[in-house]
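Hey,

The postdoc asked me to send both predictions to you directly instead of through the lab channel. I've kept everything plain text so nothing gets mangled by the mail client. Protein one:
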Amino acid sequence: MGNLSAKTLPIVDWASASDIPDLIAVWWDSFNDDFIRRIYPQTPDGRQWLERAFAKNLAPRTDPDIPATEVIIVRDPDTGLPAAVAVYRIIPEGSDAARRSWRARWPALGDLPDIREDVWTEFYDPMEKTQAYLLGSRGHVYLEALGTMAQHRKKGYGTALVQYGNDLADKLGVECYLDASDMGRPVYEANGYVVQDTSAVVEKRAGVSMVRPRTRKD
């Protein structure tokens, strides 16, 4: 395992294709309220779609102008299995809206009945709108998802994954963006993220838009 952040006690690591079954277990355990289960249903269709999603996210980047994806994990020290996961998108400066869109980031919808495009559109379109409103075409690091299995919470795993993104953004000299749940918001605030007012572009959305300002570490 590679120690990607020396500033936190938990060791963070890049996920690999062999981790996909366990990544799905983390995903389902972390995102399991009724609302989120409409988006990521815990069904055979839902599993098949997540397998595709992680395979796509873990595939090598072939075009430097396309946003890169990193799937970062913290492993259970006893079993070595993923216990927490974060999906980061590294958005290049000036990348066009189509390449930044959730439709480009995630696998195509439509052939698995449980994965409903109307539900995805309702969930992701407002977030996409606020992200564009706040950041425009500036390069940034986007924390799209972060989840920790219930039995591993309160161990600093989420903080370690957030700090990884902060360190990456500082290295690149860019801002960070995320959409926070009520549960996650205190962790993000403690790590430099600031709540943004997006009422000018959306009235109702699932999360709270937060930005960590651009900094450089000399």
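Protein two:
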Amino acid sequence: MEVGFLNAAILLIIGISTWIIARIIYVIHRSSKPLYNKPPGPLSTLIVLGSGGHTAEMINLLAVMQMDRFKPRYYIAAATDNMSLQKARVLEDSLMDKAQVELGGTSQFMQIYRSREVGQSYVTSVGTTLVALTHALWLMIKIRPQVILCNGPGTCIPLCVIAFFFKVFGIRWSSIFYVESIARVRRLSLSGLLLYKLRMVDQLFVQWPQLKSKYPRANYVGRLM
């Protein structure tokens, strides 16, 4: 009886593991292809901001996009980064007409806990990382974006990881677009490298030809910002 139960448990584990591996392979293969055959309606979009140049570059990128195709828009920045959200609000205010103001607009602004603060010890960062992942999971369940835009801040990693596994388990398909900073000339940032190596990003864009040579799956698009 016990042997039969053990064999059944082993077969179940093998079956689940096989299914997960097959789904991961499918998601990686499918992510490199267009998601829609015809132009869809507006896409709910999560925009990850980061302190310093990350937000400046993202705002410049958003300023030249067809923003009416990406709404509602959800801006997320680290809990200690108020300046980035202020810049996002200024951008959104410039986009809103009177009717949108009366309806409350099409954007929301949120903050997320950091996995690790600058100078924080690696020992204590284990606990803060778990908190950050839990918070990221709650935000992703709440937002369920169709598109994720990011360009380097570390806060994008837990969000992108959760989005990837949402695709694996069939919860939500979020297309992840990563635009590497113009400042990255010879190698990808740590965030970009992780997403590239783990194949979690749908499209990764670089702004220097030497990066395309070093990372062949990246898309070289010239200077964007």
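Summary for protein two, as requested: Residues 1-30 form one domain.

Thanks,
C.
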